[in-house]
Amino acid sequence: MRVFLNQPIPAIGIQMMEEAGLDLIIPELRNPFSDHERIKYLKLCDAMVNVGLEPINKSFFEKNPQIKAIAQFSVGYNNVDIDEANRLKIPIGNTPGVLSKATSDVAFLLMQFVARLGSFYYDKVKSGDWHGFDMEDLLGIELYGKTIGIFGMGRIGFEMAKKCKAAFGMNVIYHNRKPNPEYEKVLGAKYVSFDELLKDSDVVSVHASFSPGCEELFNAEVFGKMKTDAIFINTARGDFHNEKDLYNALNEKKIWGAGLDVTNPEPMSRHNQLLKLPNVCVLPHIGSSTVEARDGMARYVAENLIAFSKGQPMPHCVNPEVYG
């Protein structure tokens, strides 16, 4: 079986696939490919490793009918038209679980960095504007005993809540499609409505899987329902928030601060007004950027495609219904 990788992945995944007899095509050219370049490589292949959020939609499938399996190098798969994949009986693999701790680490880091105005003070040091102790400098806020509101209590949301409870004794509330009694028992967490989450949280942290209908869910109206001293954290998908509305909410002091590992659009322009605010920290989508997490993702990708090459179901498949 021949596999196209639109970007290289960690060596452990490459080695596993090659040892299993898969023939890999890894172009030196990095994303983004032109449509012509991508089709040129794909027409030689039976399967694809998709790194990033390249749209895998009806047009993609029509142009590449020879592709019979796709392994996402990500947990998310909102870039894939699952209905069309199901119609064509094409399994779509992903990499759940292996990056939960790493991504929650980034959310936890952003929460603290925003609370203590880390970006603002780091920039002061870099610019030579450190002139000793100044009582009139901007002050941060403490997180002890505050309430963390988790939007999307999956694996990553659970890891974030666990850290917040252990480190700062934070109360945990959450909003999900449905309650999770297991996590409630472990965390002492309380399931609440979306409006209650906004009203009662000192920190709102987004960890939900993105799906149609969630576009810019966090907008002016929603930010207006949050506490004026609340922090907004998004490490899930930039499409969840409206960036102009977020800037206005911060600038007008409707919320206290924001930490983003994902932006809308992505990548963020260096001229974005959010970057000028002292109570904002933005990272370039590094949630899974650890050796351990990326190696784990590469293993899952390899396991998915090796299984497919043997005529077996992918072990990490988002649409197992294709197997009947």
Structural notes for this entry:
The mean pLDDT is 95. β3, α3 and β4 form a beta-alpha-beta unit. The chain is 35% helix and 14% strand. The protein has 2 domains: 2-98 and 291-323, Rossmann fold, CATH 3.40.50; 100-282, Rossmann fold. The longest helix has 19 residues, at 291-309. The protein starts with a strand and ends in a 15-residue tail after the last helix. It is of the alpha/beta class and 324 residues long. α5 packs across α7. It is globular, with a radius of gyration of 21 Å.
What is the element layout, followed by pairings?
Blueprint lengths: L1 E4 L5 H9 L3 E3 L9 H8 L4 E4 L7 H6 L5 E4 L9 H6 L4 E2 L6 H16 L2 H9 L20 E5 L3 H14 L2 E5 L5 H7 L2 E2 L2 H7 L2 E4 L13 H4 L7 E4 L8 H9 L5 E4 L19 E3 L8 H19 L15
Parallel strand pairs: 1-2, 1-3, 3-4, 4-5, 6-7, 6-9, 7-8, 9-10, 10-11, 11-12
Return the domain count.
2
- Fraction of helical residues: 25-40%
Q: What spatial order of strands do you see in the largest sheet? A: 8-7-6-9-10-11-12
Q: Count up the helices.
A: 12
Number of strands: 12
Distance between the termini: 23 Å
Q: Main β-sheet, in a few words? A: 7 strands, parallel
Strand content: 5-15%
The assigned CATH architecture of the largest domain is: 3-Layer(aba) Sandwich
